[in-house]
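Record format v2
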Amino acid sequence: DAGVTQSPTHLIKTRGQQVTLRCSPKSGHDTVSWYQQALGQGPQFIFQYYEEEERQRGNFPDRFSGHQFPNYSSELNVNALLLGDSALYLCASSFFWGSRPYLGYTFGSGTRLTVV
Amino acid sequence: KNQVEQSPQSLIILEGKNCTLQCNYTVSPFSNLRWYKQDTGRGPVSLTIMTFSENTKSNGRYTATLDADTKQSSLHITASQLSDSASYICVVYNYGQNFVFGPGTRLSVLP
């Protein structure tokens, strides 16, 4: 049973460029959440997707956008990259309508983005 | 404001010793609290999950406690091993389906 899969594992981009990160949820999960984790900090919530729509959003600018596909996989897009966007980007999946949806909350290994 | 604080920020112990990590939270309404272990550059892995009615939960050498009245939790690690070196993150989940993450405690276990 595959867990949460993220790609790529590492990425180096230049300031001003655009980047797309990908996430495949755990089998049976239909909800994907994205987090940004700066070095030495806890994860910060970016947004959550369910039924191909953004359901919740954290305090991140519009440069951060996402998409969820019919197979529940998801993409995170960041435009006009800044040096401060350098971080570990984590994807977590869960089942939205369970009686206790938090129980299945599973993280991927993350994508390390470096902006130079 | 929903917040989770952890202490100490970092900790160094010798292999075989015990240690306790602390978590204080102000998240409301409270649903549950979980402790994650995160190896450097990897995603967090859940260690324990506790709801309001649970005050102790163990997972091998890891034992978490929860005092919902004082809004405090602790994670006790027994007989530490080198592989315990990681960041330990306290996370509180509220009924809005929001997770509030603490900054983590960085544990280093030395031989």
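The two ends of chain B are 41 Å apart (CA to CA).
Chain B has no helices and eleven strands.
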